[in-house]
Amino acid sequence: MRKPAVAGEFYPALPKQLEREISRLISVPSKKRNVLGILSPHAGYVYSGSVAGLVFSKIELPKTIIIIGPNHTGAGEMASISSKDEWEMPGGIVKMNSELAEIIMSKTGLINEDRTSHQFEHSLEVQIPFIQYFLDAFDIVPICMRRVEFSKCEDIGIAIATSIKEYGKPVLIISSSDMTHYESKENVNRKDKMALDKIMELDPEGLYKTVQAHSISMCGFVPVAIMLVACKEMGAYGVEIVKRMTSGDITGDNIRVVGYAGVIVY
After folding, report:
1. Which percentage of the chain shows pLDDT scores above 70?
2. pTM of the predicted model over 0.90
3. How big, in percent rounded to 5, are the helix, strand and coil portions of the chain?
4. Cβ contacts of 63 within 8 Å, gap of 6 or more
C-alpha cells in the first residue's frame, strides 16, 4: 500500500476538507467532452488547483486513467510503472490496472516495474483527488518519467497508444506538469506561450526542442510530449487551452513566479 506523500501539504489531508476544497475549485460546464489526453498542473492546490479543477470539470472521465508525471525525487528507474501497490488517499483506496500496465510494458523495453520512484513523487498523486471527486470506481496506470531524449518519448507514446487500442476500453492520458519556474511574470508568460504554441500545434517534438532551445523550466515536458505522441497515434485533431495563470496571480509576487496551464487534447 503506497501512502500519500503530500497530503496535508499540497492538498488537505482530511476527507471532508479535501472534498470542500475540490468543490471550490471545479466548475459545472453545460456539457462535458470526451478527450484523449490532458495537461494538468501539480502544484499545491492553493496555487494551481483552479487550473486543474477547470480541466477535470470539462471532461468525461473513463474508468481507466494513465497518469504520466515527472520524477522530481530522482529515485528509481528512468521510466517506471507501479502496478502492484494500491494507493491510499484521503478519498479512499486507488486500484492499479495491472492488465493495461503489463500490455504497455510488453510494447516497449523502456518502462520497468518500479515502486521506488513513485513512493514520494507528488506529480501523479495530486491528480487523484480530482478524479475521486467525479468517479467512485476507477483504476490507474501511474508512469513516472525522468528526462529522456525525444526518441524515447516517441517510443513510449506509441507503445501507450498501441496498448490502449489493444486494451479495447476508453482510457484517458493525464500528463502532469507545471510550466516555467521561478522567473519574472513577463518571462514566464513569454516562455509558456512558446511551449503552449507547440502543444496547440500537436507537435511533441517541437515542444521538446523548444523547451531545450529556450531553457524553459517546464518540469513535465517529457510526460506532455509522450501524451501528445500517444494522442496523435490515436487520431487527435484538436487542442484547447482551458486556463493559464501564474503563482503571482495568487501571491501578488510577480518577480519569482511559476506558470500553470490546463490543456485538453481531443
Report:
1. 100
2. yes
3. 40, 20, 35
4. 135, 137, 138, 139, 169, 170
**Cβ atoms 124, 134 nearer than 8 A:** no
Cβ atoms 226, 199 nearer than 8 A: no
- Evaluate whether residue 3 is within a structural domain: no
Residue 241 in contact with residue 261, Cβ under 8 Å? Answer: yes
Alpha-carbon distance of 25 to 35, in angstroms, equals 20
Whether 242 and 57 have beta carbons less than 8 Å apart is answered as no
Cell numbers given for 252: 501578488
pLDDT tens digit string along 147-185? 999 999 999 999 999 999 999 999 999 999 999 999 999
Query: Helix axis angle, 221-233 relative to 185-200, nearest 10°?
Result: 20
Strand-pair partners of 94: 87
Name the CA radius of gyration of the chain, rounded.
Answer: 17
| Total count of domains within the chain | 1
pLDDT(30) > 90 = no
Residue 71 per-residue DSSP state: -
DSSP calls for 46-61: HHHHHHHHHHHHTB--
The values of phi and psi at residue 20, to 5°, are -65, -40
CA 180 to chain centre: 15
| CATH number of the domain bearing residue 125 | 3.40.830.10
Question: Do the beta carbons of residue 82 and residue 121 sit within 8 Å?
Answer: no
Q: Which amino acid type is present at position 152?
A: K
- The residue segments making up the domain with residue 96 are 15-265
CB-count exposure of residue 189 (10 Å: 0-12, 13-18, 19+):
middle
Q: Whole-angstrom Cα distance, residue 94 to residue 133? A: 13
Residue whose C-alpha cell reads 506532455 in the numeric block: 224
Q: Has residue 48 been placed in a domain?
A: yes
